[in-house]
Every structure is written in structure tokens, then in C-alpha cells.
Known about the structure:
Layout lengths: L12 E5 L6 E5 L4 E4 L14 H23 L3 E13 L7 E13 L3 H15 L1 H6 L4 E10 L1
Parallel strand pairs: 5-6
Antiparallel strand pairs: 1-2, 2-3, 4-5
Helix pairs in contact: 1-2
Amino acid sequence: MSAFKIGEDCMECDVKWTGNGMSFLAETGSNHIIAMDGAPESGGRNLAPRPMEMLLAGAGGCTAFDVVLILKKGRHAISGCEVKVQAVRADEDPKVFTQIHFHFRVSGTQLKPNAVARAIELSSEKYCSASIMLGKTAAITHDFEIVED
């Protein structure tokens, strides 16, 4: 039985242990499969990303999505967006993220630095639920570079 009423405001994901080491498969509500595995020192075989890496990847994808959408809606000539995400975790359990840095590499034609900065700011302060949620435990910083096509 679900703890929530399944609907538009509820997301779901089923995670199952494969029975092999520390390997897990997640099936998302949109019917996609994601593999996760642990490090060898934890009984894993290093065959897939760690769950905490997935969390960082999700935050990077969420903010990159926002930045591209905001710049496209502003009719800026964006042709690419890459985000390198680096994080530091606490030494003690629970080993939450304590610091996260997003470095954006945005490419396009005659992109204005103030427009890119504003898109990143809007994502980090208003739209990217993943990074805003992670910001409850971690100090989050951003920087960017623009690559001219």
C-alpha cells in the first residue's frame, strides 16, 4: 500500500536488490531502468554508478535542463551545455554532501555572460528542485565559462 496518493504530484521508483553483491536495479515511474552498484570494499563489483553518484548526476541534469531551457526561451543562440559537479561528503554517517560545486561550460554564438549567469541563478534559486533540496545540507557554489562557436 502506498504512503501517498499516486497522481501528478507523486513520483515513484521501485528499487530491487539483484541478489548479486551490492547491485540494485531501479525502475522509474516513467518505466526506465537504472543500475546501481557499490564499491568493491562494500561488497559491490563496481559495475554501475553508486547511489550517491546518481544523486549528483540528477542534480547536474536538473540544473543543466533549466539553464538550457531558460537560455532557449530567451532566444539566446545556445548550442551546448555541460556541467561538471564536484561534491564533498561528511566524514561521519550519515555521509551527506556538505559542499557541492557546479561548473557550467555553455557554448553558443555571442552568448552574454549576464544572461548565462542569470539562467544559472534562476535554476539554483527557483527551478532546480534537486539542487535546492541538496542545498539544505550542502554549501552550493557555481561558476561558468562560455565557449564561442
